[in-house]
Design a protein that fits this description.
27% strand; five-stranded antiparallel sheet; six-stranded antiparallel sheet
Length: 391
């Protein structure tokens, strides 16, 4: 049977989910099984999008295919490539806060991250007045123009990221890819043998995906003291224009965490965003709940600081970050398209306090929102995500 290996992989994957060390409640398990469904979908999608001779950009994550503490503010696209061929990427720059590209030499495994061979943002490419651009990725050549990027040995994956700061006003761009010497031709027709191999590849992708991103937090998060966040630092994985601050939390329902961070100047970082993640190392529900905020979405206090209030209970504050029943989880701030290196005082300060102590926060009254205001904020998120994901 062509699907036999994939069916076996699904059964093994369910056991990985059920035996994950953090599964303690029915909610943990239900979310794990939901994560499994998205991973099955994504693995099949990526296995069938694996043609390096006739590539196209495939969406890597979304509300139903979450992976690797996916950023609620980012659209991820990837294409498989080979280092001995030339690829042409054409597109039109949207109005998002950031557009970046990265070439990697493989995929994540439970033992290591892939190497980043090149990473840059749209400041390094020529963009026409109408927003259009054309990039070439391929072997080194003497007549290469300014928008030709040499593929290093082992180049296997091209990633593109569009990052939103203002969900309501920014609009996505266009992006396409083709191999320079195959445009206008067609791949050979499929065979049963090839389809069986793809099911096998999808199964191996599925198991690697789950094992890797259950192990990944051990490398970068869980060895840190609980209820703290790191100083800003270059994000692991080679994103040249991104810094991050990370941590993990463990809070009772009568406790809150207040993360205070300076609002970055747009000239220094057009994108600054905060999010929570579950112990499955994926984003929480960012559509129907405010589990993330960008600097544009957040209430900035008169002293230029953003005070994020992480709480299970509703504090009636604009910068409430909803835990949605997650006593434990991950914390992350990202700054992107940076114009300078960040310093420790650009990063967050963290304080855990009792819920009833919140009125003592600086500028507490300026953050107050009514239930009607809060419902409007959630409605705006729902509309903005629907436009972004389908637009």
């Amino acid at each position: 049977m062509a699907t036999e290996s994939f069916a076996q992989a699904i059964a093994e994957a369910e056991q990985i989910i059920r035996s994950a060390p953090h599964v303690r409640t029915e909610q943990d398990l239900a979310e794990g099984l939901d994560y499994l469904a998205g991973s099955i979908k994504a693995s099949l999608h990526m296995a069938w999008a694996y043609d390096r001779d006739f590539p196209f950009f495939a969406a890597g994550t979304g509300p139903y295919t979450k992976l690797g503490l996916d950023n609620p503010d980012t659209l991820y696209f990837s294409a498989n490539i080979r280092d001995d061929a030339e690829y042409v990427v054409t597109g039109r720059r949207g109005t998002t806060a950031d557009l970046s590209f990265q070439v990697m030499n493989g995929d994540y495994t439970p033992a290591r991250s892939p190497d980043s061979l090149a990473a840059f943002d749209d400041r390094d490419i020529e963009i026409a007045p109408d927003g259009s651009y054309e990039l070439r990725f391929g072997p080194a050549r003497p007549d290469a123009g300014p928008d030709h990027f040499t593929l290093g040995e082992g180049s296997a994956l091209l990633l593109a990221r569009e990052v939103y700061s203002d969900w309501e006003t920014e609009r996505r761009g266009e992006i396409r890819i083709h191999r320079a010497d195959t445009l206008g031709s067609a791949p050979p027709p499929p065979t049963p043998e090839k389809m069986a191999r793809r099911y096998d590849v999808a199964g191996r992708m599925l198991l690697s995906r789950l094992r890797t991103f259950l192990a990944f937090p051990e490398w970068h998060y869980l060895k840190l003291p609980v209820n703290t966040m790191t100083e800003p630092r270059p994000t692991p994985g080679g994103l040249a224009t991104q810094y991050s601050s990370v941590g993990h939390y463990d809070l009772d329902d009568d406790q809150v965490m207040v993360v205070t961070v300076p609002a970055a100047a747009r000239a220094d970082a057009p994108y600054q965003g905060f999010q929570l993640g579950s112990l499955w190392y994926i984003s929480l529900d960012y559509i129907n709940h405010q589990t993330s905020l960008t600097a544009d979405q957040a209430n900035v206090d008169p002293d230029g600081k953003i005070r994020l209030v992480i709480s299970e209970r509703d504090p009636g504050l604009a910068n409430w970050i909803e835990r949605t029943g997650h006593r434990r989880g991950y914390l992350q701030i990202r700054w992107q398209r940076l114009a300078r290196a960040l310093k420790p005082d650009d990063g967050p300060q963290v304080e855990v306090m009792a819920f009833d102590e919140l009125p003592g926060l600086p500028h507490y009254e300026t953050q107050r929102v009514s239930p009607e205001d809060w419902a409007a904020r959630i409605a705006a998120r729902q509309v903005a995500v629907a436009q972004r994901m389908l637009g």
